[in-house]
Design goal:
Shape: globular
CATH class of the largest domain: Alpha Beta
Strand order of the largest sheet: 7-8-6-9-10-11-12-13-14
Number of domains: 3
Strand content: 15-25%
Length: 474
């Protein structure tokens, strides 16, 4: 289906089946930390097979609700609430991505002989088919979703999971060797990984999650695990326009492909005169015009090229073009909510870092009305402040970080420079203020540059609330 298909072996194979893995745990004491979406199927599988299982979660029995009743009914030992990490006695310890391996309770358990693993690490052991993994500071979900759609349109049976969707671990035994598992992988999932996917995509690296990672070095090392454990048959796709990922490519052990909006690469996908080209050994093959890519913004051109590079040899150029012309993106990622009285309202709630909001601002050929603010990640807002001065006509700030963003904007702008700035205590009040300020032809953009945890459970809830408010405007 592509001109390098003969260089890429799509089969992975598995060390053992998931059933065999569960059987090996019957003589072990297993602890699962975190009873969230990814670990719940694992907990139930362990209990159904009679494995000695302890469930630990910071929520109380009442807060876990039906899940706690179900686990206990299946025979689980429960350690819940404030002391959920105390006195861990286990042979095998499953870590939820939200708990770092450097946590003192985990370190203590490991020092006493516990084997530390995770739902995603075991998946790589038992998955019988090819795996494609996507990581980066920005663009992971869009790139992952586009790769999945490209493969589906080419006729493959695709399983999408990792940091998005449902857990794939308990379904792995039903996968065929010719299927493809497409996985979004966060730094929190990757930090303890000792295996890499067959195809790794590294979209970019910018300061992020520094409220959890101790520094950029630790953050970058975690991301590196997406490709560093590949063999010579692996493929790794890097952003040539990002200094971090460009440098990381030197460590690739297999095939290294690049994508770039700025430079011509000898191997990968790049732009030239508003065209997207597949390049192999310096030979260029036209795929499509950039104007035909449905997703708006330069960053989405990068996501599209990264996806094309990942599936080269698996998906034809014609299918790449057809898919990119129809792919409308993922919820909460520059999602058009509605147009009302000539004003376009976009939900970019996924933008939980300054770099992500900067990319969102670059998606429009005009100055926008921006709603921003939330809980910061320990990342500076200086660069965002400079971009807001260039790209925002009216700025509405709300949430815990509002004054930090305000300081960055005030530092960046001169006398009389845009934007007009308004501070609002409530999220709904902030959205209504943006709507009141908008005129025919304006764009109102929710792109917070911060996490949602000061007010919402996650960015999805924040985006859903924004959508509901906008849909209620009259």
């Amino acid at each position: 289906m592509g001109h390098i298909g003969d260089r890429y072996d799509g089969k992975r194979g598995a060390e053992l089946t998931f059933e065999e893995y569960l059987e090996s745990l019957k003589i072990k004491r297993v602890t699962v930390i975190g009873a969230g979406i990814s670990n719940t199927p694992l907990i139930e599988a362990l209990l159904h097979r009679g494995v000695d299982t302890t469930v630990r979660d910071k929520r109380s029995f009442c807060e876990l609700g039906e899940a706690a009743i179900r686990f206990e009914g299946l025979g689980a030992k429960m350690a819940l609430g404030d002391e959920y990490l105390s006195s861990i006695n286990a042979d095998v310890l499953f870590r939820t991505p939200g708990i770092m391996p450097t946590n003192p309770a985990i370190c203590d358990a490991v020092s006493r002989g516990a084997v530390l693993t995770s739902e995603m690490e075991v998946f790589f052991d038992v998955c019988p088919c090819k795996t494609i993994g996507v990581t980066g500071s920005d663009g992971k979900t869009t790139t992952t979703s586009m790769i999945a759609k490209l493969l589906e349109n080419a006729g493959y049976c695709v399983h999408t999971g990792g940091n998005i969707g449902a857990s794939l671990l308990c379904k792995a035994d039903s996968f065929d060797c010719d299927d493809v598992a497409v996985l979004e992988l966060s730094s929190f999932q990757l930090i303890t990984m000792m295996k890499s996917p067959d195809v790794a995509v590294y979209t970019n690296l910018t300061p992020n999650h520094l409220d959890v990672h101790k520094d950029m070095e630790e953050y970058g090392k975690a991301k590196r695990n997406v490709f560093i454990h590949q063999g010579r048959s692996g493929r790794a796709v890097f952003n040539l326009d990002n200094e971090y990922t460009k440098a990381e490519a030197e460590l690739a052990r297999g095939e290294a492909l690049f994508f770039s909006r700025i430079e011509m690469t000898r191997d990968g996908v790049c732009l030239d005169n508003n065209g997207i080209y597949d390049v192999s050994g310096g030979y260029r093959e036209y795929i499509m015009d950039t104007s035909d890519v449905l997703l708006p913004g330069a960053h989405n051109l990068e996501n599209t090229m990264a996806a094309f590079a990942a599936v080269r040899g698996l998906v034809s150029n014609d299918i790449m073009k057809e898919t990119a012309r129809a792919f409308s993106g993922v919820k909460h990622r520059i999602e058009l909510v509605r147009r009302l009285r000539g004003v376009s309202y976009y939900n970019d709630s996924i933008a939980s870092s300054p770099s992500r909001t900067i990319a969102g601002l670059h998606s429009f050929g005009q100055k926008v009305i921006l709603v921003a603010g939330g809980k910061d990640k320990g990342v500076a807002f200086d660069e965002l402040g400079e971009e807001i001065v260039k790209s925002v006509k009216t700025l509405i700030l709300t949430g815990m970080s509002a004054h930090q963003i305000l300081d960055a904007v005030e530092k960046a702008r001169g006398d009389g420079d845009s934007p007009e700035i308004m501070m609002r205590d409530g999220f709904e009040d902030a959205v209504h203020t943006a709507a009141d300020a908008a005129q025919n032809g304006d764009v109102v953009l929710l792109s917070p540059a911060c996490t949602s945890f000061d007010r919402f459970r996650n960015f999805e809830e924040r985006g859903d609330v924004f959508r509901k408010i906008v849909e209620g405007l009259k």
